[in-house]
Amino acid sequence: MPAFFVAGYDMLDEITKAGADFDRSLEGSADTRALDAVRVTYFGRKGGLIPALFSKLKDVPKEQKKEAGEALNRLRDRIQAALDEKSARLAAEELTRKDARETIDVTLPGRRPQLGSLHPITLVRQQMEAIFREMGYSVDPGPEIESDRYNFEALNFTPDHPARDTQDTFFTDVEGLLLRTHTSNVQIRAMEQWPPPVKVISCGRVYRRDEITMRRSPMFHQAEGFLVDKGIHIGHMRATLEHFVTKLFGGTPKFRLRPSFFPFTEPSAELDMSCLFCKGNGCGTCSQTGWMEILGCGMIHPQVLRNVKIDPEEWSGFAFGMGIDRVAMLKYGIPNIRTLFENDLRVLQQF
Ligand code: DAH
User: What is the model's pLDDT at position 1?
Assistant: First the structure.
């Protein structure tokens, strides 16, 4: 008989003491890790107190065995239940604390999102389109890759016209296809698509084989507009363009029409406005003339109308074209066209 079964030893006492020890340990375990350690102390496969007590049961004197066995069963069930209950409670509390830590602090200052802004060319394009929309014009950008017919032939360019020269035009590998050299191609496309009366504004990219300089770029932007209706004369053109340019630049500029030449208009002209900067007195920007060239225009050539099967005896119209980049440079005081295409954020963020 083992030494502890001396007179006076009582298994029931040991069970009671184990229960009391457990209550203290339970009380003292503040988190699930401590609780897991308690669980190991009592139920661990090796050296767990409860299994150890069960194995002692066989040495308990017969008359005590039943009572001790029942007490041990009760103790085991009680410890089991208490551990389960407390570990569920602690786990829930820990989750709540974790949630609390991860809660969004709505008082923190926000991180400012980087806002994009519209490119100065886009701004000017939108302003131009808006002014013409107000006058009932349709907007049609037209294609940048174009056939010789729409870019030149139907616009009355003779086969040996200098603008067809390979110096100016980017040709593609496909016979007869080129990058448009101006937005005038839209005149022909629009007149073919919509029978008169018709009025269209078109803004987009155009391409010419030019060196990059302060004022030139092989890719730039043009706005083109035209109107065909009955009884249209040069007075309509002048009134429309003066209204347009005044709205675009603001103020009360003076205007003049200077004779010019374009193959697709007759007569052709250039519209000048009094210099934005010196108001006509003469300065560096206007080369002391007091005038700034703003756009090319004219009455649509009867041959161009015939080319799209419009009878010039019945219909007449005017057309105009201008550089968008140049307007953006004038409006925003940008001296170098390259600034428009470098996309330096320090520049773009100012718009
Ligand atoms: N297409 C001409 C150019 O690229 C600009 C132009 C001039 C367009 C007169 C027109 C116009 O519609 O009537 O220089």
Answer: 43
pLDDT in tens, 53-74: 998 888 888 888 888 899 999 9
Start-to-end CA distance of the chain, whole Å, equals 98
d(CA 95, CA 31): 12
163 CA to centre of ligand 1 in angstroms = 12
Q: State both tokens at 292.
A: 């700034």
Q: 274-294 b/e with 16+ CB inside 10 Å = b?
A: bbbebebeeeeebeeebbbbb
Buried b (16+ CB within 10 A) or exposed e, 252-269: ebeeebeeeebbbbeebb
Backbone angles phi, psi at 48, to 5 degrees: -65, 140
Pairwise CA distance, residues 156 & 152, whole Å: 7
With cut-offs at 50, 70 and 90, classify the pLDDT of residue 99.
confident
Mutate to test the pocket of ligand 1, among 181, 182, 241 (most ligand atoms within 8 A of CB): 182
Ligand 1, atom 12: closest residue by C-alpha: 320
Which has the closest alpha carbon to 222: 173, 295, 170? 295
How far is it between the farthest Cα atoms of the chain? 137
3-state secondary structure of 258: strand
Measured by CA distance, the residue closest to atom 5 of ligand 1 is: 321
